[in-house]
Protein 1
Amino acid sequence: MNPIEGHLPIRSPLHDILAPTGIAVIGASSDPTKRGYKAMVGLIKDGYRGDIYPVNPKADMILGVKAWPSVTAIPGNPQLALICTPAATVPGLVAECGRRGIKGAVILASGFAEVGGAGAALEREMMAKAEAHGVRIIGPNTSGVFNLHHRVNLLALDNVRPGGVGIISQSGNMLLSLALEAQHNGHVGFSTYVGPGNQSDIGFDDYLRYLGEDQHTRVATLYVEGFRDGRRFLDVAREVTAMKPVVVYKSGATEAGQKSASSHTGALAGSYAMTVDLLRQAGVSVVQYSDEILPVAEGLGLLQKARGKRVAVISDGGGQATIAADRLAEAGLELAELAEETRAKLRDVLLPQASTVNPVDVAGSTDANPSLLATCMEIVAADDAVDSVFLVGMFGGYSIRFAESLLGDEMRGAEAMVDLSNATEKPLVIYSLYTPIKPPALRRLHEAGLPIYASIEHAVRLLAALGERGQYLAQCREAREAPPVVEPRPEQLECFDRARAQGRDLLEPEAKALLRAHGVEVPEERLVRDEAELEAAAAAFGEAPLAMKVVSKDILHKSDAGGVKLNLAGEATLHQAREAILASCRAYDPQAEIEGVLVTPMASKGVEVIVGVIRDPIFGPVLMFGLGGVFVEILEDVAFRAIPLSRHDAESMVEQIKARRILGGVRGEKAVNKAALVKLLLRVSELVEAYPELAELDLNPVIVNADGYAVVDARVIVDRDTDPSDKEAHR
């Protein structure tokens, strides 16, 4: 097992609130239908060791505990208040809690900002009282909290056992689902649960910081519908994932950034795919399906990480071995290539008909002695080419399927597997079709901390998460230089100021000048406003085939307006092309202001990609890279990373897209210059940091080939609302 190491630099104030020495239950009740009753029952039944202060002006005793008429009448010093009363009473009660010295309040009531109008005003009033009196708010509209290691069970959930899985969930029903699943599993336990509700005060980033510090939490697990401050969450996630695993299930897709998309990047940003990429960039394990949450969280909590993604499969059935191999490949994992020495050792203990090529199929060798499976696991775990070992089949059920006399062999095999798990850092993951009935050998393994699954798919998802986490931690340990601080150029700031004053975005020549000023390779070009400039351009570029396109702040999609002509040669042809472009664009939009046409040499043949930037209102500046051209929004073969980028971030973006095989060279084409592409991504990231006035950027297409890249088209959307001197506004 791998210990959890590291620490966060700032201690979360939530420790005092979520592990309180005294709790006031405001609205405590003897009515079993009330939450104030259920909270009292949960605290009493679980044996809460602190002081309980029921608050109810109409009762002297509640469930055998002395009640108090008001918060101010409480004689002790509670740290937490659970407010079970209607929304209208909450602001006043929060103020009373503050005057009493209570540090935190859990607000169950709904009817606040989630209903809009008067509810939003009530929430603002509540927060004003909280801030004035120093009270931290969980909720409102929360399902509640529990901290099982401190016997704080304000949900009165039965049969939930203490353990290492911490949960933050915006859905109370999702918590119930996970609790019932854990109850059925019989081995998964929880540390802390919080329903964040409206996050009027405490957000996901605050809760994650607490779980990162909590000694009882081995894995932080979050069900998220929407982040309040995604950038802060990513910052905290990077700190926490360096210490312990973080699992997130993100439901739906945020609408942020999609309301008025001005560019291809803007149209694609704010998507579910973007959120997933940014979370993974911060080391978070993202699960796609809700039934994966607990299996992956439990397995990560137990095993923490794998060295890489090379898996050895051992199976007692060829069909399930094939299924496992298929799922592993789909998950981006590799079947480890076993050394000849390893295969020889397997042949020594298995029957001749067994296959020692990964996946290893024992082919009946274990029917009379299932403990041989443990021997096989030990042999492959010793192979340097193996990062994880995956046992697939019917272990635990041999004594049920064949003969009861095999139970002793299975138990000896289980003990050998436990010994192996203690002796190796390589994860051992087991799928057994007998898992649902919990035979003795499987119970022994699970009690010893080995994850046992009834689904090959769940086991593979864990293996993928272990491999991803191991690679992320290895990358974090590598020496990483801080991104250079790039200062804005005075002439470029003047350009932004001019565009803002005129209520427009940067013209294409201005956008390319910005790129060129910061080391981005942009082909030579000339802005042509009249015949004399056209003649000069023709002379300057000689016989090279040229491209010509309109320059206008009013024409966003040049091709749609007939504003692009390609493969032009000779002054006469240039003259004809210019006249055709101007006529077509004036017909397309008679009111358009046309600056002229841009003339540039045709780019060399290559692959079209897009590099874009959006300042997402939730996550801040985000860079996008993918297959480009006119079909980018249809193909959606793109990757996202939060800015600033590390070199690893840039390299992983290039390798993530499905079109990476095209970049590697197909049908006789040379591979593109990936090093130049990575450099371009890093330069764009640095540039965005320097100019908060830049709201969106589209470089589409960028033609990449073996020689490098050429930025064919560039568009910069100007933020007309933000103070240009405020560099932190977009970060």
Note: The longest helix spans residues 456-477.
Protein 2
Amino acid sequence: MTKSLDEYLQAFSKPHYQSTLSNISRGVEREALRVLKEGRLSEQPHREELGSALTHPYITTDYSETLLEFITPVCQSAETTIAQLKDIQRYTFSQIDGELLWPLSMPCFVDDDDKIPLAQYGSSNIGKMKTVYRQGLKNRYGSMMQVIAGIHFNFSFSQEFWQALKEIDGSDLPIKEFISERYFALIRNYKRYCWLIPYLYGSSPILCRSFLQNKAHQLPFKTSERGYIYLEHATSLRMSDLGYTNNAQSALHICYNNLDTYVSGVKNAISLSSEEFDKIGVKVDGEYKQLNSNVLQIENELYAPIRPKRVTKPGEKPSEALARGGVEYIEVRALDINPFVDTGISLEQIHFLDVFLTFCALSPSPDLNAELQAHYEENMDDVVLRGRDPELLLVDGEKKRSIKAWGKILFDDFSQVARLLDGAYGGNNYANATAKEYEKIADSSLTPSAKMLDVVVNQNNNLTQLALDWAQSYQANAMASEYQSFDLDIFAKTVKASHQQQAEIENADEQSFDDFLADYFRQ
């Protein structure tokens, strides 16, 4: 039987339970565009010296050849995770011939989105599938939406923590089912409170006008003296309808109440036909336009601010992995790139995310119906577009609350969770990070979005030049630093191994690509 937050805090304050909180595992996936020193997209393909984008464990590409993705391995030290990310970026800088990493979520100037090259993954069937999937994204939503960059934060509690929580609850569920049940409770609470993430960390209230390129919208943009467009109270246009969203998915109603309803909802979504996408065609004149014409080509196309995850086996779909082994970790996907730090995410952010997600795991989390879920999605939409508007009220059950009022209630609880984590880890990192984030609740001018507007609109700076100045500074600092967690030999060996692995995958293919796809979707 689940308990109140206070009861869990009291139980976990006992030393033999508190110690189980000190083994949180994390990983960061950071996306970044490769750009030239004048602020345009690089036209160079993914560098061979960075390894195979198909198989390299730390350096790959996302939508485009120019959109890099850095992946840190699972680690129980937040400090090490940041060090690993710095090392991956340092090695990347050494191999890209003076190109820079764009430090913003929204892309630089792009005069023609047809010039954005699709990511290539070699001649294997799985490599071709990844590229065709991206071709489908281009044909469905356009390329510009796909070169928006973000941070994905992967998070999991230790097995010892789940055993302790199961014991505290007095649950009779098998441990695998218990863990999945409680991760879904965490996810539901995240959806209740995830408006906090763009409020605290959104840093994309302003755009280069080239991003719109005839994209239909009804947003009341203002224009800075230098020609950039912005919304006065926006926090994260990346998370708005302009950004990484999919309106075709609004009717899917994926249920997050338990593993079975979630998996069945996702499986239904990838088999649901779309009249709109059917007009594109699948294989036209011998060339694939998309993998299929369903609402989702594959499960990765499900856009959500958080996902339950399990590491997949070769050829296994994400939902199949979840059905097989239950939830292993969660992926938080609502984070803008933090332009004020070289890694795009700070150590302090990680500490606060630990607090926030632990709060979500230990707080009561009743099931969500479609109406409640819609209310929480509306809260998120409101905050990304006008989160710093002092008139904004969010829906909290039967009540409406301002961000200041609701934030005060939540941060009182966050402070208690922070003290619990500081007791487990030692020091004051969690209390300090939480106190710093609360300052943004009390004063919205301290948020990254407000700072971005202040420097570009009020101080009349050139956004492109500002981003390039940051990018050049981050590049110089990286190249002047020493490796901390990895070293050059590790990267050299990993690059070589990734190319060998790609070749092995390609040589092992025996099916035609058509047959491979047919088998994949038949399973």
Note: The first strand starts at residue 25 and ends at 35.
Protein 3
Amino acid sequence: AENTSSSKRQPNEFSATLNGAVNDEVDDTKTIGEAALIEERRRRREAIKNKYRSQASPLLVQALQLGAGPNSASPGPESAATTPGRSESPPSSAPRTPQDLSAPQSPAEVNFDANTDLSNPLKGSPSADGPSAADYDPTADMEEERARHDKRLFKEDEASIEHAEHQVIEQMKESSAAPFKPNDEFDMFADADDDDDMFAEAPMKPKTEAKAAQALDANLMDNWDDAEGYYNTILGELIQDRYHVTQNLGRGMFSSVVRATDRHTGNAVAIKIVRNNETMRKAGMKEIDILQDIAANDPEDKKHLIRLEGSFDHKGHLCMVFESLSMNLREVLKKFGRDVGINIKAIRAYAQQLFMGLSVLKKCQYIHADLKPDNILVNEARSTIKICDLGSASPITENATAPYLVSRFYRAPEVILGVPYDYGVDMWSIGCTLYELHTGKILFTGRNNNGMLRAIMECRGKFPHKVLRRGSLSFDYFDDLLNFRSEEVDKVTGRTVVRMIDIKPKPVKDLRSRLMPKDRRMNEQERKELEQFIDLLEKCLDLRPEKRITPNDALKHPFLLKVKA
């Protein structure tokens, strides 16, 4: 569980210290008041930034503007900075193919017209108060969350603040050459962070001549890896005398992905190159076994799970070759439904395919454990999706209590509470994903697991006592009477405090009020579709894991049956 020691400090601790210092006539040093302390921290941060401003690269200059204020919008095609190792899409390990910026031609039955007037993103938005799903980076967020947990960064004293500031500066200095790392100081949803929006459309790069494919001589390099164990890909390299590497697609936490041309077939493929690490190699071998088992249970490739075409070792790295697809669903939201969502007919088609994929996973007794828009790929026509990145997947028999399993905003409450979990964790993640597709907004957001539980209860109501009593971690968040202890940051002192929160059984901002506000105008057909969609989401997001809808039952839900005009 996360360190909450700072939350146990007495509220008047600072005042007592201050009064003692003032009354000490021997000591001439005056204790800084709260306002002065905040101002001193601000000046120190500015001094650190100014120290590096003179030697800043363009990307560092951009990073140093993180405190510029609300006018610091995400860089557009003409102003965005380009970082080596980062692509237009999130640096996940999902295989995909880069796309141009032109809008695709989608089939009529799966068009991507948003649910509201695109000329005014705020007009008629079903959920204008949530953070944008298009700009969220779950990979960086997960790295940051693990860093906070491992390094106990929740302890908000001067030492942790200085440590965080040092890490920010070091990342700024290295950002032009190193793979993307999370920012340890700034809120990922603050306006300032948008200056380095990894989902911003990248500027056009000068075209480079395609290099002739050639195998590289191992004697020409002392080390094929960087300091973190990622493979140093060289464009034009011929791997296994077969795959001509043409482009870097990005890096995830466990691997990098490159685009290559298969010289045997002439087709484009995506190659996932696992980091040179024994633990990650074992995880990669496990992923291969799972993918092969799934393929054996879906011989006709009709169940919407990514296809593994082969695997091999290359200079100490385990490599996996995948079919190449177009973009992931977060990119779809960014291009077609930022802050407003996509057409409900497209959501229906995607939902049906997702539940088909989950049905195969359940048949094979696997939990994906990391479902989110980033790990769902679409083809070029945007009509077919496939679930990818099974690096976190495991057999149902191997599930164990892990409070940081699944990216945080898609994490089922039973995982946080330490309740034994099963296939329902994937269904919860799909419910969150479908909500994002419809609204363009993230449903549940919290800075940590405590914040996630509060966000969930504010939408879905109180947890049944039976569920809480089953959780091995429940009393990290609830007292003996099962009242919720909410961790909040004091706006003045910056310290974490705990206060008891009364959660209403029937929240005001439930799913229905978010998706069907009173001022939203709809015809009878639209209302019927939305009613069915809300009912499906409520069944996906049931707080009782055992009552959550199953994939096969979801496929029979009225929302997925074609509505006749």
Note: The two ends are 52 Å apart (CA to CA).
